[in-house]
Every structure is written in C-alpha cells, then in structure tokens.
Amino acid sequence: MVRNASQSVVRISDRNPHFLQYKGLEILLITSAEHYGAVINKKFDFIRYLDTLAEYGLNYTRIYPGAIVEPIGYWKAEDMLSPGEDVIVPWARSDVPGYIGGGNKFDLSRWDPEYFDRLDLFLREAEKRDIIVEICFFNCMQKKYWEWSPLHRDANIQSVGECDNVAFQTLDDEALVREQLKYIEKIIVETNGFNNIIYEFVDEPTTVLTPSNKAYAWIERQIETAVETERKLAKKHLLAQQLELGVNFSDDDRIGLVVTQYIGLSWRQVGGIPALDNCYCFDKPIELNETAYVGSWIKETDDLFSITRLEAWEFMIGGGAGFNQLNGFYTVSNPSGENTANRKLLTGLRNLRAFMESFDFVKMTRDTETIKKVSIGANVQMSSEKGRQYAIYMHHSFPVLSGKSYYEPAHGKYQPVLTLMLERGSYAVTFIEPETMNVLRETSVNCDGRAIELDCPSYALDLAIRIVAR
Questions:
Q1: Are residues 217 and 182 both part of a single domain?
Q2: Domain total for the chain?
Q3: What is the pLDDT of residues 122-150, one digit of tens each?
Q4: Distances in Å between the alpha carbon of 394 and those of 38, 261, 391, 462?
C-alpha cells in the first residue's frame, strides 16, 4: 500500500490515485514557476511573484532550499539560482572570508535563523494563496557550480565536501552524507506544520553520469531519513522522486508522486508522454515538473507561447497530475515576470486549467483506446470517463530532443477526421481553439457502439475537443 500523506496536507486523492487532493478537494497542479531560487535569493520579492501566480489561477511552485547554488550568469545574466553574495541558505555564515560567491564561508555547525524565517514566510504566503510548494532537496551537481555549494570543502569552515561533483550524489563521502541528511532532517522539522508542501529528494540524480546504482542508494538513504524524521512529527507529507533511466522509484510505496521532466527521453531523463505511457500503471500522480527554460533557452523572439502550450496541454489532458513550466522571466529586478510574452504564457496555462476543470476530471483516467485513427499525422492525447466525458487534445509539431528538449511547432492548415469508439449514447461535442479558448464549432453525435467518424473544423496548430454525454 502506498504511504499516503496525512489528511490535512496535499495528498493522493481518495477517489482517483492519479490526482492530488488538498483541503478535501481534488486539484490539478498547473504553473509557470521561477527557477527554484525564491527563498535562497535574498533580494527576490517573492510576495509579488506569488501574487502573479495567484492572479492567473496558478497553484504550484518549486524551490531548492540551499544545497544548490549556481554561478552568476550560468544560464542567463539574471538567474534566480545565482544570487552571488545575496545567497541565504540554512547554514549560518562564519567569520572566515572566502566564499566564492562573495562574503564569508559557511559554518555547517550552525543554522541561520534569518533563513528559516524567510522560508517560513514564503510557505505561509504561498499557503494563503493556495499555492503548493515542492521542496526539492538536491539537484544534479554540475562541475561548474559544485564549488558554489555551501557543502563544498572550500565553501565551509569544516572543509566538508572533499569529493568531486559526481561523488556528491553518492554515499562515498561519509562526512558529506552526514551533513546532507542533517540538512534534510532540519528542513523537514522546520516545515512540518505546513499543509501546502511536498518533499522531493533529487532532481536529475544521474545527469552528471553518477552511476545509477550509487545514486539510487543515496536517494534510498534520504527517503529513510525523511520517513524516520516524520515518524516523530505531527504530519506526514507526500514524498516525491524524479524518474530517470536507471533511477526509478515509481514502484516504491514510500514515494507517492512520480516526478518527470521534459517531453521525452533526453539527458537520461524520462518525461512527458513517454513517462505517462510507462508509469501510469503504478496508479500514482505523475507530474511534468520542468520544461525548456523560457527566457533562457526559449527566447521571446521564438514561438514561445506555442512551444509552452503544446507540452502543457498534451501532458495534462493525457492524464498528468501537475505541470510546471520553467520560467526565467521572474527575476530580482522583475519579480512579477511582467512582460507581454509572459502574460500570454500565463493566460494559456489559466486556459488549460479552465478547460480541465470544465470536466468532472477526478472521474477521468488516461485513455489510449477510444481514438482508433486520425486521418492525418498528429500528436493526440486523451482522458475520459467512458460513456460520460472525454477530453481530447491534438497538435502538430516535431520534438527537439538533442540538447534542449521541446516541441518545434508546425503551423499550417489542418482539418483531420477522428475515428472514435465511444460508448452507446448521445453526446455534445465542442471544438475549442486552445490559444484563445474560442469555440470553433459545436455539434452532437449519436453512437450505437460502433466506430464513428468525427470531422474537425479547420485550425492552425492545435485543437481541444470536449465530448460530454447528454
């Protein structure tokens, strides 16, 4: 039996294990979130950031709480994980100068009260807005930013972290592992009172080619620490781990949420539709929690809105529980991410949530059987409660999987015919343009248990279809 969270916190739905539940209601986690540095970047005004998410009906964000710090300018000139001297982490500063990002080194024997005050405030403000926060303890330790971590030997006065970046994600360095586990325990103890949090262990555990068996054992130790820590505390929270080739905790009953990243198989990661195809059978919520980096890899001059829309709509309508678009428009100088491109992106995600919530979605599951044929090439995904309600999404694009993983939109003029095998009955059919939510056509069909053909209206890139029993 899967270890579910306490009743009061975000947890697996009692009615459908593919969805999450919060405050007694099933929820879809849909967002476009900052690059995980909202707490550790001291100058970031996270109130304005959270207000933006709430304004667009977005209810999810993810943070790295301190073990990962990136070099200034690593991904872009102003990046949330690159605060430099303005970094604030769980460990207090010492009196010894020499931290590579500026200021004094860290003292691993002392926690920083200012950091935990900031973390507490962030979680409280998110909770006020019904925003769920995924706390991800570790990310793959790239060689170029290993020395920026407080756990690197040159960044702390204890000289803990004598290993290289690859070994950081193993049990090889005993002194380092002790500090890693103390850090996990401290974060859990300090945040146990919150209902709006999920604990995730390691993002991209083998991307720097850490051997899979060693990374697996390291994550196993973290899970044990989290379970044992919460055993003594009032609340038990949902635990999550990312799926990678060679590192798969989908069948581990302690892990309640399967995390995936990107739209296919890239950098040893399994994400998007391939993850749904391979992991839906575990009867757990699955999320797509990182995508092509908007504002960094994907520029405002690119077909940004189309690129971000395709991956979000297909994953959620295909049976996903959560979607997070990695968004670099949120910065210290622009915490609300205000620009024309971002407004359009956020509106698109609000539209997706509205479309999904127009169904009684908790009764729906991933459906790979009802659509028998599409007359022209298309990417098609579907969820349904057979005989009652069907959600379909189709788009035309090409996956770019080498380097930076995303869809390349193929704009054109499309008017396919779908062959469907619906249950007997009469159905109302609505064709919707996802970009604008404009209704393109409404019709009805009667089914006698045999296959029917559904003529679609003309569209330029993607189409959503709502089929509901009369």
A1: yes
A2: 2
A3: 999 999 999 999 999 999 999 999 999 99
A4: 35, 21, 10, 6
